[in-house]
Specification:
Length: 145
């Protein structure tokens, strides 16, 4: 999972989000930065009833947040979504590799004459850093599908 800071940088670089079921997002600057939310048609929570774990289905959240504007949330794309976004943005003949490295993972992408490499302890972060470079190169937003 990428950091909230990196997800914010992707959004600021022009990554647009078309929400889909099971997408994760965060609500920054509301004292909930460490909480992730899931786009879901019906929330299911694990609770305890008489000391036993149960799955409780909730039609609405218990805390007072009726709605939030999409522009106020930050999408937290998964590793697979980041890879798909990169693949959609580059030509089929442009190399894109993710390899294990001594410090974690290295994403290598051919953005010019010399391939660029982005290393991070987490594979999703390596993909996100490569996507930031692609967005900067293109200077335009990228719609997620």
């Amino acid at each position: 999972m990428i950091s909230l800071e990196l997800a914010g940088r992707l959004r600021d670089a022009g990554l647009r989000w078309n929400p889909a079921e099971r997408d994760l997002f965060a609500l920054p600057e509301r004292d909930m930065d460490d909480q992730l939310f899931v786009v879901s048609p019906l929330p299911a929570l694990i609770q305890r009833l008489n000391g036993h774990p149960v799955v409780a289905f909730q039609a609405s959240a218990e805390w007072a947040l009726d709605y939030v504007m999409l522009a106020e949330v930050i999408w937290m794309p998964s590793e697979a979504q980041l890879r798909e976004l990169l693949e959609a943005r580059i030509a089929p003949d442009v190399p894109l590799r993710l390899e294990r490295s001594a410090s974690g993972y290295c994403c290598t992408i051919g953005l010019g004459d010399v391939p660029a490499s982005y290393e991070h302890a987490d594979a999703a972060d390596a993909y996100a850093m490569a996507l930031l470079a692609v967005l900067a190169r293109d200077g335009a937003g990228l719609a997620a599908t």
